[in-house]
User: Fold this.
Amino acid sequence: MTLKYCQGPDCHTYHTKDRLKGMKGSKTYQTRRRTVLYYGEFCDTRCYNDWFQKYGTRAVNHFGRLKEVKHLTEENAWSKTYDWRASADDSHRYFTRNEITKEERPLTEAQYADTNYTLNER
Ligand SMILES: [Zn+2]
Assistant:
């Protein structure tokens, strides 16, 4: 199994027992490696915050800075949800609700699971 490296720029500077690795007499504090990182690319929220502190502004500028307010309107207020109380064979278990008009429309399980499916205008 491939190990992922925590992307925290200062991960190796935190003195925890699990980061201290190496041969006896030449141990060093090292970046954490895990098969699964539970905070995206990071081992914990401290490393996550360290990264954002250092690179957040550059990342926002790179991917596109918001330059005007966004408005929630009828055309983009649809959100998917499901009724956890409905039985498994109930076809109305999954639905989409307009958060402005409160209208609800049924969804198939496939539509619910499809991350590209939406009634929202782009
Ligand atoms: Zn880390």
